[in-house]
Specification:
The complex is a heterodimer of chains A (296) and B (375). Chain A has 14 helices and two strands; from the N terminus they run αββααααααααααααα. Chain A is mostly helical and 296 residues long. Chain A has a single domain, classed as MetI-like (MetI-like fold, Orthogonal Bundle). A two-stranded antiparallel sheet of chain A has the order 1-2. The longest helix of chain A has 34 residues, at 72-105. Chain B has helices spanning 56-64, 106-116, 121-134, 150-162, 180-197, 208-214, 232-237, 242-247, and strands at 18-27, 30-40, 45-49, 71-76, 79-80, 91-94, 168-172, 200-205, 217-222, 225-230, 252-262, 265-269, 277-280, 290-295, 301-303, 312-323, 327-333, 339-345, 360-365, 371-374. In chain B, α2 packs across α3 and α3 (121-134) packs across α4. The longest helix of chain B has 18 residues, at 180-197. The model of chain B has no long low-confidence stretch (mean pLDDT 90). Classes of the chains: A mainly alpha (296), B alpha+beta (375).
Chain lengths: 296, 375
């Protein structure tokens, strides 16, 4: 009985907070747009009894999903999102790995402080932090002022409202998610492994590629998924830092919902996005599972 | 033709493989190794023995190249090794934690060092097979380190460190993680492998029994100094200091004052009411000089009656009996409070044992049984 209670609680949680909302979104995606509140039809009319339920199901169709294939905006937005997320993930790895490596090799009494510094940005609002990047990256921003002041550039660089700004924003925002899992794998690595590699004839650099990097692989994979998955659906960063040519599915979704008030199409976009992300999420879970097995 | 005994340390013409010359190592204010000079010869199985923190691991890490001496030089085959980085030394090390690469199979672990030498594939495969055979690991070649037992992991570590045929193999507490029974078997296996490969082994251990079993010579270390470096037999039978006598094996130390009796023979008085003890020694003692007589328990005879020709015969009561199966150690307290240990072999069954607690017994030993040391 106690075991049952233990299992029921998390499942009830998932049911209430994930499955039910998802079914609602799925239902809306199968509905038609309507000038009403809520702005779609059909709605379930329980007062009409069995006939009402039948009418409700008869009113559902895949029209919106067919519509998504007819306009190339959508699949281009999906592809562009995946590309931007992939590039940003790679850049985050390039920045995050050395930081995690440095933290893991720092003197033990320094590590909690460094960890704190990585987590510290979470203490302020995400929105404010993205806004402040606008101040840094704009043509009159701090970056251009400094570069101009140093005489490195004569014309201010146009970074804000381009994809570059989106990359910077994503790398900055998701960096801790990359650093922490990599740091965790590097930190528990036995230092004598590197000495053994050196003893057997490796140079330090060779030992890094043959020992350290392969052993931190699970952390790298975990970090990449933790950045990639939310980055695909990212909305705030492309909306604030990206330009008119930055095409991301999160932005499309937002526009469908709030500008067009077309809830059914917006829901269809969301359902497809979720289906797209299920693949990396499953891969991520498998990676975690494998690590647990290797340790156990 | 009589076989020559392997004793290069007694041969003045022998060239040592390793030569520590006035080596000092400091970590900040702490002196880990204090001006030590030591020669280790080819094909030796040399043990560095001492309690933790005595500097034995530092000695080994300097040989491997992970530490450099603060002062002095270390020579390998007559060449100063200080400027040679660890990856270029003909020295390999077996780590206490084994340090097996968890993402590589047993085969790949053993091949790791060979691949770094850019040997061709066939030669690597042949060498790895040879190592697997030597350590009886053929069946486990494809397994990952976490899929084999502790004893097998230990053998992989050994095979990996031997694969490159180093001039010198360093073993850091190689049996520390094994249980007692497996440890004994492994000790003999290690000696076998050392003999077969003809490699010079330097082993670091805090287990004196292990050092005595495997090593041709043992260096007993204390606080960064080598107190005595000698064969196991001489370390045991002829310790040069109370520290060594006490560290190796079981011993009773009787502190007293010396009185020369005749050439090489001294009288030791240690308590007012007790008879003087006589002991032979090559060391010189002046009248009234503080000294310590170290006697191994197995050299002390225990009897119910006063032995007739016993030179050193003392009466006491049995305080404790440590029954170890094959032998029993009796702790006998003399009237002055001094406790002397005496050991007997249990050739009879337990029920027929002669002595029990609180029995009054006589202890005796010959003039040459004890070692007279400076107190």
């Amino acid at each position: 009985m106690r075991r049952f209670a233990l299992i029921v609680l998390p499942y009830a949680w998932l049911l209430a907070l994930f499955l039910v909302p998802f079914i609602i979104v799925l239902k809306i995606s199968l509905s038609d747009i309507a000038l009403a509140i809520p702005p779609y039809t059909p709605t379930l009319d329980l007062a009409a009894g069995w006939q009402g339920v039948k009418d409700f199901f008869a009113g559902l169709d895949f029209e919106n999903f067919v519509f998504l294939t007819s306009d190339d905006l959508y699949w281009k937005a999906y592809l562009s999102s995946l590309r931007i997320a992939a590039i940003s993930t790679f850049l985050t790895l390039l920045v995050g790995y050395p930081i995690a490596y440095g933290m893991a090799n720092a003197p033990a009494h320094w590590r909690p402080t460094l960890m704190m510094l990585v987590i510290l940005p979470f203490w302020t609002s995400f929105l404010i932090r993205v806004y402040s990047w606008m101040g840094i990256l704009s043509t009159e921003g701090y970056l251009n002022q400094i570069l101009g002041g140093l005489g490195l550039i004569s014309e201010p660089l146009q970074i804000l409202n381009t994809n570059v700004a989106v990359y910077i924003g994503i790398v900055y925002t998701y960096l801790p998610f990359m650093i922490l899992p990599i740091y965790a794998t590097l930190e528990r690595m036995d230092a004598s492994l590197l000495e053994a590699a050196e003893d057997l004839g490796c140079s330090r650099i060779k030992a890094f590629w043959l020992i350290t990097f392969p052993l931190s692989r699970s952390g790298v994979i975990a970090g990449c998924f933790l950045v990639f998955i939310p980055a695909v659906g990212e909305f705030v960063i492309p909306a604030l830092l990206g330009g008119s040519r930055t095409l991301m599915i999160g932005k499309v979704l937002w526009e469908e919902f709030f500008n067009n008030r077309d809830w059914p199409v917006a829901s269809a976009v969301a359902v497809i996005l979720l289906l797209l992300l299920i693949i990396p999420i499953i891969l991520f879970q498998r990676n975690e599972q494998k690590n647990r097995e290797a340790e156990g | 033709m009589p076989e020559t005994v392997f004793e290069p340390w007694n041969d003045p013409d022998a060239e040592p493989l390793i030569r520590f010359r006035n080596v000092t190592k400091r970590f900040g204010d702490f002196t880990a190794i204090d001006n030590q000079t030591l020669d280790i010869y080819e094909k030796e199985f040399f043990a560095l023995l001492g309690p933790s923190g005595c500097g034995k691991t530092t000695m080994m890490r300097m040989l491997a190249g992970f530490e450099t001496p603060t002062e002095g030089t270390i020579e390998l085959s007559g060449q100063d090794i200080a400027p040679i980085p660890p990856n270029k030394r003909a020295v390999n090390m077996m780590f206490q934690s084994y340090a097996l690469f968890p993402h590589l199979s047993v085969w790949e672990n053993i091949a790791f060092g060979l691949k770094r030498d850019r040997m061709d594939k066939a030669a690597i495969a042949a060498r790895v097979e040879e190592m697997l055979k030597l350590t009886r690991l053929e069946k486990f070649a494809r397994r990952k380190p976490h899929q084999i037992s502790g004893g097998q992991r230990q053998r992989v570590a050994l095979a990996r460190s031997l694969a490159k045929a180093p001039k010198l193999l360093l073993l850091d507490e190689p049996m520390g993680a094994l249980d007692a029974k497996l440890r004994q078997d492994t000790q003999f296996e290690l000696m076998d492998i050392q003999e077969k490969t003809g490699t010079t082994f330097v082993i670091v251990t805090h287990d004196q029994e292990e050092a005595m079993t495997v090593a041709s010579r043992v260096a007993v270390m204390d606080h960064g100094r080598i107190v005595q470096a000698d064969t196991p037999a001489r370390i045991y039978e002829d310790p040069e200091s109370v520290y060594v006598a006490d560290f190796i094996g079981d011993v009773t130390i009787i502190e007293g004052t010396a009185q020369p009796l005749r050439d090489g023979c001294y009288e030791v008085s240690f308590a007012e009411a007790q008879p003087k003890l006589s002991a032979q020694s090559d060391r010189q003692f002046g009248t009234g000089q503080a000294c310590a007589l170290a006697i191994r328990p197995e050299k002390v005879a225990i009897s119910a009656e006063k032995p007739e020709n016993g030179v050193n015969a003392l009466k006491g009561t049995i305080l404790d009996i440590a029954y170890l199966g094959n032998i029993s150690t009796y702790h006998v307290e003399l009237p002055g409070g001094q406790v002397i240990k005496a050991q007997t072999t249990n050739t009879r069954r337990l029920s027929r044992r002669n002595f029990t607690w609180e029995d009054e017994v006589w202890l005796s030993w010959s003039e040459t049984a004890g070692v007279l040391l400076e107190g």
